[in-house]
Amino acid sequence: MYPAAWAQIRGRRGGSRTDMRFRLALAMRSLAVALALALAPAPAAVAQDIPGSDDPAFQLALAEWLADDEAEALPRLGTLARAGNASARLLLGLIDRTPSLQGVFLARLPRADRIALLRDEGGMSGRNWLHTLDAVPLAQTWNDLFALRGGPELIARFDALGDPRAAREAMITLSAREHPRLRDLDPALLDYELLYLLWPVADDDQRAIIENRVGPDHPQRALIGQRPDVRVTDLWLRESPVAEPLRSVCAAVCPEAADQPACQSAAYQALGSHNGLLALGTPAEALVPQDVFLNSERGRNSTIRRILLGRDMRARRLMMRDLQDRSACLWEALHTQALLYRPNPPSR
Question: What element of type H or E holds 15?
């Protein structure tokens, strides 16, 4: 598959007229979904190539990582990063900053070994590889976001670099920090899925625009102080592109089609964070397209790990007890994954 098939995957971005007619027909199933698609912003620019992404050694390490083989992939990526491969540095830097991207192998490593594997040398705890990528705009945009340098322009920068998932994460981060310049954004031009994040800082006119744009069957209604019908929220989970992380997990762990709607609804409740759902996905579109990542072992396990990480142990036990009744197959997948992260009992 690498690297020739990777180019084919990237080449599918535009979509044919037949695809457009199919998407439009699907959207007609729900007036609100059709409205959301009609008002959505224009597609982002194609993700820019990162130096080193076509290196066969990097493609091998990436394939291993997507197969959830950290023990093979991460040492290879570390070797490439130390040799100057910018793609390996970018991927390791984002894994280091994103707990849900860190699997069982990393979780079991002693802290010193984990730092040595993920970071460059320097300082008391190593240096994140992103800080070595001054010539890579995507890495610099991430550095600016992590350091809270800048405001809403970071969202536009990620969009311009062809990384809509990163743009959503930037908006979520700025909203959590209550960035004062968010109120300068025009709700009529913002990504439809992010409108609720403007609500806390919006004036009366902006709130009127948001209410008019948000369909009655969208979970955002609950996030602006209203109450959507759970049945139409379930429809949104089946159709919205940003709910694909949950659909991918449910398709894998609950293969019977009849079980998947309950799995999707239960997974959304178990995640317990609409923000968290919007931020799930590929570490970098330029390295791994979102659809490829979400349908990989690493992608699905990162969604499961994000669900598990979202609660302390007591709350997780309560969540798992509820989940067992709502979707037994999803419960089994989360239970199995949680057991993998438990430390081995001491040998006698």
Answer: none
